[in-house]
Amino acid sequence: MGYLRRMESEPRVFPPRPIRGVRARYARQAGCPSDFADVTVDFEPWEEGFAFEAADSADVTEGSCREQLPGFHAALAAGMREELADQGDGFAVAVAVVLRSVRVHDVDSHDRSFHMAGRLAVREALAQAYGPPPLPKHRA
After folding, report:
1. Burial bucket for residue 112 (CB in 10 Å: 0-12, 13-18, 19+)
2. What domains are defined for the chain?
3. Which residues form the Translation elongation factor EFG/EF2 domain (predicted)?
């Protein structure tokens, strides 16, 4: 069950207010290569739909991965869209996401890492906006 499915029947708009400085770090050590992505984003109320951009002033901490950044950005945005879609009906998305900083690792950063970081960033923003997700109901 998504964060917003527990809301009353009137549609909510995400985000209800600016949610800035959301950090999502996806790091998994399961062998070589592992997974690593670390981003900080702002969620701003916007027109209906989803918009993503990297700020001109975005802080980029990277090694030799600069040519891969556009692919990482696309994977990050795709993960965000996917997580928002998984929330189901009951809310409208009207958000501009602004990438403020990104950290990558020469070996362990790849599209999958950034896709997962995008999902985590949306979960964190939803928790900041609406509180923690509902607990699963106990079946007797």
Report:
1. middle
2. 14-127 (3.30.230.10)
3. 12-130
Query: Are the C-beta atoms of residues 14 and 80 closer than 8 Å to each other?
Result: no
Measured CA to CA in angstroms, residue 9 lies from 6, 50, 135, 136 at distances of: 9, 22, 19, 20
Structure confidence by residue, pLDDT tens digits, 83-140: 999 987 778 999 999 999 998 888 788 899 999 999 999 999 999 999 987 788 777 6
CB of 93 within 8 A of CB of 44?
Answer: no
Whether the pLDDT of residue 34 is over 60: the answer is: yes
- In this prediction the pTM is 0.85
Question: Cβ–Cβ contacts within 10 Å for residue 140, how many?
Answer: 3
